[in-house]
Design a protein that fits this description.
3 helices
Length: about 150
């Protein structure tokens, strides 16, 4: 089996066509591939990144857990509050794993972890991990923390 199969989208998604990858967002928007170009914000074909099988497995496992929590939150049923707490928990496994993966991916490409935020809670002002003021020099999202490699 192709080592990238776990991260390929099932449908035709717009994929990054940038000449070079200058940065990555690790982001779940309910697709099979959580790797997005920081320039064009389109999915990056995982084979372009030349990742090892172990890292691909870790990314796929993180995506599965994040996706499950995100879907429970979206369902707005009895699990909504619990799922939101898990998605926002800076010590929770899903965010710890996401930040770890951003650091690992950053060994090859600058990578930011796109942190879950409920827009009903207003615009975030502080990093959800270190509580520092979010930077406002961002291209996508509402803020970033360079220290933690987090985008919101």
């Amino acid at each position: 089996m192709d080592k990238y199969a776990k991260l390929r989208p099932c449908s035709d998604q717009e994929t990054c066509e940038c000449k070079e990858i200058s940065g990555i967002f690790l982001l779940d928007i309910l697709s099979e591939n959580p790797l997005y170009c920081s320039d064009c914000r389109k999915e990056i074909e995982p084979a372009r990144l030349d990742l090892d099988a172990e890292l691909i497995d870790k990314i796929a496992n993180w995506l599965s857990a994040f996706d499950a929590l995100y879907k429970l939150w979206l369902d707005s049923g009895e699990y909504e509050v619990w799922a939101k707490e898990k998605l926002l928990d800076k010590k929770g496994q899903v965010n710890q794993d996401g930040m770890f993966l951003a650091r690992k991916l950053s060994e090859k490409y600058p990578t930011s972890y796109w942190w879950f935020w409920d827009t009903d809670d207003g615009e975030p002002e502080f990093c959800p991990n270190c509580d520092c003021n979010l930077q406002d020099d961002f291209r996508w999202g509402t803020g970033n923390c360079r220290k933690c490699k987090i985008m919101i």
